Amino acid sequence: MPRAATKLQPFEATTGIPSSGAPCEEKFSDGRHSEQQPARGLSASLTLFAMSLGYGVVQLDVTIVNTALDRIGASLGGGVAELQWIVNAYTIAFAAFILTAGALGDRIGAKRVFMAGFAIFTSASLACALSPNPIVLVVARAVQGLGAAVLVPNSLALLNHAYPDEKRRGRAIGIWAAGASLALTAGPLVGGVLIALIGWRSIFLVNLPIGLAGLWLSWKYATETSANRQRQVDLPGQVTAIAALGCLAGAIIEGGALGWYNGFVLAAFVASVALAVLFILQERRAEQPMLPLSLFGHRLFALTSLVGLLVNIAFYGLIFVFSLYFQRINGLSPVATGLAFVPMMGAVLPANLVAARVTERLGAPTTIALGAALAAFGCLTLLGIAPGTSYWKIVGQFVIMGGGLGLLVPPLTSALLGSVDKSRSGIAAGVLNATRQTGSVLGVALFGSLIGRSGQFMSGAHHSLMISTALLLAGGAVIWYGASRRD
């Protein structure tokens, strides 16, 4: 890789974390400088609130839509494949654009880009609510995912600028992350209540007041970061990345609906491989690649990225399956379905809090492996589900799965960031985000294709649970064995 590719600019490409805590300085085209002082006092607190709204609304839409899938299908028509696209259009755009969105914030200023992301997300939410058919909804969800990708890294960049003191910044980021966890947990329940009271379109309309509040607070109180015109945006890498991921997801989704030997499906698989090769070649020769391949030369970085991919395939793929199982097979209402997921999501946060102490005692690789094993055990013990299985025979396994996920994610993130130089922590965090979102795309695509065929829902659900168990055990074994190896 050329030397220029390894030298990152002061603001990292994905989260916008600066290499130092110094106040940012913006350069104008005539050579003048404008001091951009960080927010203080009330302004800093309201900036934190605005950034938390941005990250929270993104996480809310990760889970809230699953509760509405059955009602959306009944209202707009279409089968499981169309429902998969409604979920995955959002996640594909989120995964594919998150690295470039951070670089764009570096180049023209995180506040400008963050506000544009909020405007995109809010407008797309309105379009989702007004969608007359599945095609329009899928397109609007993709635009929503683009807005989400813009919001996440630039919200963190603005937080970093608002809180130059390391201790205060750490607390602010903790609040930012906790708000997102709360939104992720509340998504199914909030969605169920809104659908019961108003209808499925309300799950998108709820984003409008959040978006307007976030835009106003950002405009009023957030201070702009520096505009680094030397930071390049890797457009060829961006185009090939989203095309490769879209083709792969499309091949898996349509493979379940059309058959794996269908000409379109085979062509999509071939295209995804060809585009992935083009993406790698582009990243190898780019001066400032969106995905520096040299990072994967660090064994721990490569291992944690792989585990993040495998865990999200298993976890989010099963959320899609069980959302339909509760409503279509067991006949639960949207509210009851939302309530059904609360114990699983609710177990994540306390497990997050315990993870640090467990990691201190056992080390990150062992803690990650333990979390993966717990989640795998939860999946394995769900293999006995059938139509009409009582929820009370499922809830315990849900708690174990959520607890396992909550236990492994903090040390996974910490181990990945610790495997690279601090100057590259921003891009490293972005890669983990992109990798995990890619896993979510593949999980929904794969498991949806297994349950999508007529009369095969339960067999597909059982296969999904077996695959999830295998992936989680593989992930735990890979990190535990691979991290302990000595070259």
What does this 3D model show about the protein?
This protein is mainly alpha-helical and 487 residues long. It has three domains: 37-231, Up-down Bundle (Growth Hormone, Chain: A); 234-289; 292-487, MFS general substrate transporter like domains (Growth Hormone, Chain: A). The protein is built from 16 helices and two strands. The protein has helices spanning 3-6, 41-76, 80-108, 110-129, 134-162, 166-197, 202-205, 207-221, 235-258, 263-285, 299-329, 334-362, 364-380, 395-418, 425-451, 457-484; strands at 24-27, 33-36. The protein has a two-stranded antiparallel ribbon. The longest helix has 36 residues, at 41-76. It is globular and about 55 Å long. The protein starts with a helix and ends with a helix.
- Residue runs with pLDDT of under 50 for 5 or more positions: 1-35
Mean pLDDT: 83
| Beta-strand percent range | under 5%
Helix % is: over 70%
- Largest β sheet strand count, sense and barrel closure: 2 strands, antiparallel
Going across the biggest sheet, name each strand in turn: 1-2
- CATH-level-2 architecture of the largest domain: Up-down Bundle
User: Helical element count?
Assistant: 16
Structural class call reads mainly alpha
CATH fold-level assignment of the largest domain: Growth Hormone, Chain: A
Look at the structure and give the CATH class of the largest domain: Mainly Alpha
The total count of strands amounts to: 2
CATH superfamily of the largest domain: MFS general substrate transporter like domains
Write down the overall geometry. Answer: globular
Kindly provide the radius of gyration, computed on alpha-carbon positions and rounded to a whole number of angstroms: 22 Å
